[in-house]
Each structure stands twice: as C-alpha cells, then as structure tokens.
Amino acid sequence: QKPRKATPQTGEDTLNGHLPPGWQSYMSPQGRRYYVNTFTNETTWERPSSVPGTPKSPPANSPSAFTVNGYHISGTPVHQLDSGHMSLRKASGDPQINCVTFPHPDIMPEQQLLKPSEWSYCDYFWADKKDSQGNNTVSGFEILLQKQLKGKQMQKEMAEFVRERIKIEEEYAKNLSKLSQNSLAAQEEGTLGEAWAQLKKSLADEADVHLKFSSKLQSEVEKPLLNFRENFKKDMKKCDHHIADLRKHLASRYAAVEKARKALTERQKDLEMKTQQLEVKLSNKTEEEIKKARRKSTQAGDDLMRCVDLYNQAQSKWFEEMVTTTLELERLEVERVEMIRQHLCQYTQLRHETDMFNQSTVELVDQLLRKVDPAKDRELWVKEHKTGDIRPVDMEI
Amino acid sequence: QKPRKATPQTGEDTLNGHLPPGWQSYMSPQGRRYYVNTFTNETTWERPSSVPGTPKSPPANSPSAFTVNGYHISGTPVHQLDSGHMSLRKASGDPQINCVTFPHPDIMPEQQLLKPSEWSYCDYFWADKKDSQGNNTVSGFEILLQKQLKGKQMQKEMAEFVRERIKIEEEYAKNLSKLSQNSLAAQEEGTLGEAWAQLKKSLADEADVHLKFSSKLQSEVEKPLLNFRENFKKDMKKCDHHIADLRKHLASRYAAVEKARKALTERQKDLEMKTQQLEVKLSNKTEEEIKKARRKSTQAGDDLMRCVDLYNQAQSKWFEEMVTTTLELERLEVERVEMIRQHLCQYTQLRHETDMFNQSTVELVDQLLRKVDPAKDRELWVKEHKTGDIRPVDMEI
C-alpha cells in the first residue's frame, strides 16, 4: 500500500499558484490536504507559498481541542491529540525522520495546532531539517536554540554599540571643557566682557551635560544590556544536552525495535520453513521442533511489542519535554525583546533629556548679551583710563 | 603769583574721605574746586575717589553750553567754551604739559564737559599721562588708539575661539557618522531589528545636525568676526600719524615762542642797560643807540606776539582734530561692541537651533520602539525557519 499521492489538481493550482520547488501535496484520509518538503522533510498542513514567510491564515477548522496549560503535559499527548481517531494498524514502516515516527500519509490524523494563531515554537519545529546538500540534518530544537544564542549575541553587540557612543560623548565633553578654559579674548571688559566670559563658560556647562549623558548611558543602558542573563549560555547548554539525550535514548530504542523486528521475521521464517518441511516429510523434524519454533516465534512477537512500547514511551517523554522547553524558549525570547525595547527607550529618553539640558546652557549667555551696553562699557573704561578732563586754553603772552 | 592752593578742608574730607595718593585739591577763582594728579598730570573737575572708576555723578551745574554737532567744530573752540569769560593776561608761564597749554590755577576758566553724562572720549583725554616711574609720557590719544587696536585683537581672538568650536563639532559629527555605519547587532530582525536600525541611523542624523551647526558657525559667526574692518590697523595708523603730526607742529611752535621770549628778554635787558648807562654818563652811547635798542625791543615784542598767535592756531587745530577724531573712535567702538554682540547672539541662536534639530533625530526611533511586537517578530521568524508542524505519533507494530 503506497501512500495515496494526490497529484496537483489543475483547477486548484490555477487558483493558488504552483508549489515552491521540492514540495509535494498529499491528501489525508479525512480529506485534508497536507504538504511535504522533499528536500528538508518539513511537513505541514499549510500550503507553502513561493515566498517564504508570507503570512497565511491559520486553518479554518481548528477548534482548540487541546490547550497547553503551563509547561507540563500529562499522559500521552500524541494519543490525546488525535481527536477521536484510534490509531489503526498500519503497513510496515511509519515514516520516520531520524528515529522520530510521523504519521503515514494514508492515515494522517487530524491535528490541530497546540497554540493556534500564535506561531508558537511548540507547533512548528517537530521535524529535523536537511541542509542544502541534503547530507546532514539539524533538529528543529537546535534551530530554536541557535536563535536564543543569537539573541544573546545581539544583546551583547548592542551594549558594545552603546559603549562606543559613550566614548564619543566623553571625547566631546573633554574637548568642550578644554576650550572653555581657553583665554582667547579674556581681556574684553565691561558688559561685553561678561557676556563673552559666560559664553566660554557655557561650553563647560555643555561638557557637563554630555558627561552626565554618557554616565547615564553606562548605568542605565549599557550595563543592563551586558548583564541581562549572565548565565544564559550555560543554561542553553543544559537545555541542549537534555533534549539531545532524549533523542539519543529515542534512537537507541528505535534500534532495539528494528532488531526485534528482524528477530521476529527470522523466527517466523524458521517456523514456516519447518512447517513446510513437515508437510512434505522432507526432514525428520518432529512436532516437538515445530512447537519450539512456534514458541520462539511467539516470544519474538512479544519482544517486539515490548520494544515498541518502550520506544513509544521514550518518544512521549521527548515530545513532552519538547513542548515544555520550546514554550520556555519562546517566553525567554519575548522577555528578551521586551527588555531590549525598554532599554532602547531609555536611550531615547536620555537623548531627549540631554538636548533639553543643553538648551539651558545658553540661557544665561542670552541674558548677558541683552545687557550689553556700549555706553556703560565706555563709562567704565573711561573712568579707569582717563588722563584729564580740563581742556587746554590759549597761550597768553 | 603762586597758584592759590586750597589745603583740604577738614569738614569736607570728613564728608568725602581722603584723596587718593598724589592728588591735590585747588580752588578756582570762581570758587569751584578742581583736582590735579601730581604723578600723571591728570586734571579734573571731579573729585577722584580711592577706587578708580567708581561712578560719580556729573557736576550739578553743567548746562550744555556747547554741544558738538557732528565731528567738525568751527572757530576757536577754546574761546567759545570759556562761557563768557575773557582770557585775562596772566603771569609768565601757563602750566603746559608737553607743549600743550592748560589753564593756570589762578584763572581756571569755567569749563563744562563737551558731552555731559556721556563719558565721551572727547572730554577725558586732554592731558598726557606719565608712566609709573614718571619718565615717559603717553598722550591721551595714544591711550584711545591702543584701546581701538585691542578691540580689533579681541574680535580676532573671538573668531579663533569659534574656529576651535567648529573643529570640535566636526570631530563629533565624524565620530557619530562612523558609529552609525557600524554593523553591531545588524542581525536583529523583525520590529525590534527595525527599531535598532533606526536608532543607529539616528546617529547619522545627529552628525548632520552638528555638521550644519559647524557650517553655520563658520559662515555666520567666525567669518564676519574675522572680516569686520579688515583695514582697521592701517586706518588707525593714519589717525595716529595725523594727530602726532599736529602735536609735533604744536611743539615746534612752542619752541619758537620760547625762543622769541628769550630774544625779547635780551632786547629789554639791553635797552635797560643802555638807558642806565646814559643816565650815569658811563659810556659814550648816543641817544641814537638807545633809540635803536628801543626799536629792537619793540620788534622782539611783536615777534613774540606773532609766535604766540601761530602757537595758538596750531593748538586750536590740534584741539579741533582731537575732538573730531576721538568722537570718531568712540563711534567705532560702539559699532564694534554692537557688531560683536549681534554675532554672539547669532551663536546662541545657532546653539538653540541645533539642540532643537537634535531632538527630532530620535522621534522616529521612539515611533519604531512603540511598534516593537515580540509576537509579530516570532511569527516572522517562525514562518521563515520552521521545520514542520505535523507532530509525531506512536509507532505501530
């Protein structure tokens, strides 16, 4: 029984356009179409568009049959999510990707998203992804983890950027402060001299404003960005190992199933062969030997069932931890974005503040400039430097 | 006849305090007190206080008997200014300072300031000033000229200061612009990535604001300050030489008067001697010789009168030019102060502008930060990176 592949209907594609390269379309027994990316193993209920990431409306008929409360899911989530359908006995070999077993196209169960309309991490990263050459694969979880680490890197780089701004402000402040103490035109006197002196001083005031800015940049933006989640990489490593270990365990249980399956096949072959031989009286095998072969065959069947059970347990455990952990990663990412947003707002707030404070540094200069009075300055200067107000008179003989 | 020195009246000084060191007080025949600085030759109607430059109310009884319209004074200003008094014949030697003749304390004429209450240059710089050791003198006009040249120097130094500010702004702009192009955290995506990108761009906008500031500083403040009165030093040199030449001319006319005075004295001595000799019949001088001596004496007297006339003309000419030129210097100084004031106002205007423009560079960043949406960013990212939304199911046997 091969999967019933639904070749693309001309009518439908005229409506929706061609699938992107590599994608195939299938019909589930319930009549719901689903799509498989033959390059990367991605499977999805949603029709892929040629442009990755084009927003698509979520499936119309997805009642929230199962909502995830908190991070812990009890029972065997896989069974519960198959809304009402019993798992039917199938032909040999469910499709598996790296020892994770996915539904066979013939009996694709009805699946609703765990968190519809939320584009949640827990819904979209089940399959492993093949790389472009198709040789190595990387798990969905790996991809989520890389995203987290990249986020941490971004936070660090933003802090570095702020540090560079701080350096620029400190240089500017230093230059203004130095120029403020310059003695150019210090000999200007009177009301004009006062206004000039204040103008020079205002540069020192500007320098203070910029130093304050750089100081707050450090304490209110750079430092928080640097220190947020200091142990993050360690925590992510733990996550990584935890989930990877569950996958390894899953893989080893899968290998056990394969081994048990092989053993059963051999035992069955042996039984069949011995039964045939009895009928054609080809050998001197007694019924005793056939009974033994039958017993071994039954035992092998039991072994296989046990192995499959153990496998399913392992897969359930992994599934549970996947949902829990990916939802945690999702929450962490929301927090990260929010934290950064807040601190960038702090940056703009400090910029506003700085420009305001800077404005006030010229106010006193303006005041003194309004008071500049050439007549007054002349009076002051003449009083200090006059040589005599008695005028000469004619010489007498 | 010695000058009638009025020793300081105890009553008066109890009211007003002691005169500063070196100053003497005199009473004019009209009963008006005046003061002489024995160190520097300064003479003034105003009582000097111990603190130079302390504001004093102008003389109560100074009707504006003579106002200076424009810069040209017709006639002999000295005579016109002696309000009503005729110059009396005096004893030998009006006080003179470097060949400029000042009123004798006995017949101090009533003098009103040419421009009362204005502390005008034309009223206060008649005498030459002795330096601290009392060896060299510098004319009042020299002092005014030095003030002008110093003013030009101040203007130049202010322009230099602005140039330094320009350099600081250009450096700041260059640093901001460079940092703006830095690729730190360029990999941040979605709404957060957009806000971050705009934050980085805002630094380039700030750089533009500061470049504009520095550019306007140059064209609207530095350049005008540098170029105002480019030929000023040359013009002042001309002034200097013009007045100095008149003083030299005055000095030579004064020397001529002294020479003529000596000649007259000798002729008179000769006449007296010859007349005496005739009476005591000591010599064989004839009446003819006496007549000759008398003639020469009279001629010497006429010569002296002519020399005095020529001197007075030269002094009047110098006086006229002094009033004209010092008033021009005064006007130039008022203009200079006003020009500087305007351009310093331009500086503060540009500072206000700059801070305002700078404020607007973070507005767009604020807008984008308000739009930061972790859920949206998750949707975008998941759509691009998802590996599969079909969940695994139990393995069947």
Automatic annotation (TrEMBL), chains A, B:
SUPFAM superfamilies given in the database record: BAR/IMD domain-like, WW domain
Pfam families: FCH, WW, WW_FCH_linker
Domain of life: Eukaryota
Family annotation (SMART domains): FCH (SM00055), WW (SM00456)
Matching InterPro entries: AH/BAR_dom_sf, F_BAR_dom, FCH_dom, GAS7_F-BAR, WW_dom, WW_dom_sf
Keyword annotations from UniProtKB, A to Z: Coiled coil
Residues covered by the F-BAR domain: 117-377
Gene Ontology CC, one term: plasma membrane
Location of the WW domain: 17-50
Gene3D superfamilies assigned: 2.20.70.10, Arfaptin homology (AH) domain/BAR domain
PROSITE patterns the record matches: F_BAR (PS51741), WW_DOMAIN_1 (PS01159), WW_DOMAIN_2 (PS50020)
Region (Disordered): 1-27, 44-63
Coiled-coil ranges (or none): 254-288
One biological process term in Gene Ontology: neuron projection morphogenesis
Name used for this protein in its record: GAS7 protein
Organism: Ibidorhyncha struthersii
